[in-house]
C-alpha cells in the first residue's frame, strides 16, 4: 500500500482508539436511556441481535421504530455495559463473540426491572439456536421475545407479534415481583484434558468426524462417532424443542437423545 510499518501501526492504533471511543459513547447513550426509564413508567426492550441486523432498518423491517410507536424504548445490545459482566459465569466456554455479548446482555436485562429482551434472528441461524436457550435460562421468568425475519416476513405479521410481545411485558411489569438474575447451573463444556476412562461422543456433522475421532484415539482418548442421523433423531428432539431451531441444532440434540434412549 506504499506505507511504512510505522505509519501502518499508527493508523491501526488510531483506528482502535476511535473504535473504543465509539463503544464508550454507545454505553453513555445507554446510561442516559436507563436513567430515562427509571424516571418514567416506560419499559426498555433490548434488541438481542448482531449489529448488522439490529441497526439496519431495511433488514429488520424498522423494528426499533415500531417498538417506539408501541410505547417502549428500543435499546441496541451494544448500548448496555456488557464489559461489566463476565460471560463465563453463565457459560463455561463462550465460543462466539456475540454469544458472550448476548449472555452479558441477558444478565443485565434480568437484573434491571425496566428491561426486557427481544431476540432478532435470520433464517433460523445455527449459533442463535444454541445461544437462545442459555438466554432463556438467564432471564428466568421474564418474557423473552423471539422474532425471525427473512425475505418472506410480512410487515403486518411482524407488527402483530410486536403488539403481542409489548402487551405481554407490560402485563408482566404490572404484576410481577421484582427479581434479580436467576442463577442457573453454568453450561459446562467437555474437559480439555484427555481422560481414557471417559467416552467422548462426536455428532456426525461432517465426513471428517471419523478423522477427528481417530486423532483423539491416537492421543489416548476414547471417542465414538454417533450413527448417521435419520428421522428418529428429529422425533426425539422435537419433544423438547420449539420447532423453530435450526436443523443442525435439532439433529445434534436428537442424535444424543437417540443414543441415550435406544442404546443406553
Automatic annotation (TrEMBL):
Protein name, as recorded: DUF2229 domain-containing protein
Originating species: marine sediment metagenome
Ranges of residues in domain DUF2229: 2-79
Source organism phylogeny: unclassified sequences, metagenomes, ecological metagenomes
InterPro entries: CoA_activase_DUF2229, Dehydratase_Activator_Redct
Amino acid at each position: 500500500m506504499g506505507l511504512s510499518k510505522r505509519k501502518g501501526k499508527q493508523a491501526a492504533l488510531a483506528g482502535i482508539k476511535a473504535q473504543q471511543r465509539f463503544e464508550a459513547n454507545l454505553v453513555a447513550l445507554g446510561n442516559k436511556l436507563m436513567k430515562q426509564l427509571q424516571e418514567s413508567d416506560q419499559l426498555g426492550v433490548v434488541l438481542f441481535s448482531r449489529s448488522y441486523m439490529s441497526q439496519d432498518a431495511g433488514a429488520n423491517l424498522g423494528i426499533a421504530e415500531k417498538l417506539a410507536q408501541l410505547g417502549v424504548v428500543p435499546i441496541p445490545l451494544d448500548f448496555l455495559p456488557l464489559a461489566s459482566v463476565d460471560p463465563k459465569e453463565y457459560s463455561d466456554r463462550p465460543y462466539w463473540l456475540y454469544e458472550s455479548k448476548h449472555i452479558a446482555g441477558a444478565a443485565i436485562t434480568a437484573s434491571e426491572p425496566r428491561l426486557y429482551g427481544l431476540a432478532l434472528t435470520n433464517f433460523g441461524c445455527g449459533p442463535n439456536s444454541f445461544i437462545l436457550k442459555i438466554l432463556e435460562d438467564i432471564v428466568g421468568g421474564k418474557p423473552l421475545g423471539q422474532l425471525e425475519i427473512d425475505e418472506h416476513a410480512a410487515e403486518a405479521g411482524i407488527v402483530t407479534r410486536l403488539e403481542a410481545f409489548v402487551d405481554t411485558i407490560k402485563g408482566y411489569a404490572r404484576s410481577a415481583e421484582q427479581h434479580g438474575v436467576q442463577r442457573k447451573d453454568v453450561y459446562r463444556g467437555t474437559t480439555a484434558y484427555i481422560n481414557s476412562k471417559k467416552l467422548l461422543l462426536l455428532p456426525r456433522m461432517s465426513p471428517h468426524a471419523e478423522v477427528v475421532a481417530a486423532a483423539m484415539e491416537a492421543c489416548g482418548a476414547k471417542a465414538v462417532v454417533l450413527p448417521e442421523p435419520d428421522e428418529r433423531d428429529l422425533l426425539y428432539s422435537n419433544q423438547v424443542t420449539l420447532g423453530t431451531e435450526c436443523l443442525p441444532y435439532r439433529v445434534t440434540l436428537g442424535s444424543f437423545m437417540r443414543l441415550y434412549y435406544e442404546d443406553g
